[in-house]
Amino acid sequence: AEMLKVNASLKNIILRSNKFGETGWIEIFNGIKENENCKLEELNLYHEKIGIEGAKSLAEMLKVNASLKSINLENNNLVQKYAQENTLKGESFDVGATVEHEGANWKIVKGKDSDGDYIIACFDGIIAIADALKVNVSLKSIELSYNRLSNNKIGDKKVQVIAKGIQENKNCVLEELGLGGNKIKVEGAKSLAEMLKVNASL
What we know:
alpha/beta
């Protein structure tokens, strides 16, 4: 992370299949953000589980970075994850209930399984990325496949915010948007269609 604050030549970094944890990723994204001479063009974070806080830190970096052209966020924990009951606080652990987990509000989308895990969802990270897409003027490709952006419990709202973020960016240069494996339904497809009506780059 310290190297990324000052490096002025690196163009491609592949960090897939590591175990840095959310704190580690926040340090890396902050390092890129602080580098005014950053030349990084490609960031591969496939299956890294950067988590909600990592996604928020990434989004802050994307708002100011002018060099990144491609970012792979396929199969990260951008919306949902497993959590043990002893890490949750709330009056109810029923499906649909809001609980506190690691300082943020999450919704329970699937009840406790045989291992004692709940599936919980928090939208703060993907909303932050959508906000970054409203202003980023360098990204040409973003891969968001297999991030559970849509399902029966949370609907298509997260796909809708991504589409709206791109739609509102009048200087968008995005050419590729990966959304495979997110089980997008009718409302999400409609939002993408509305975005494509006005987008001139995809």
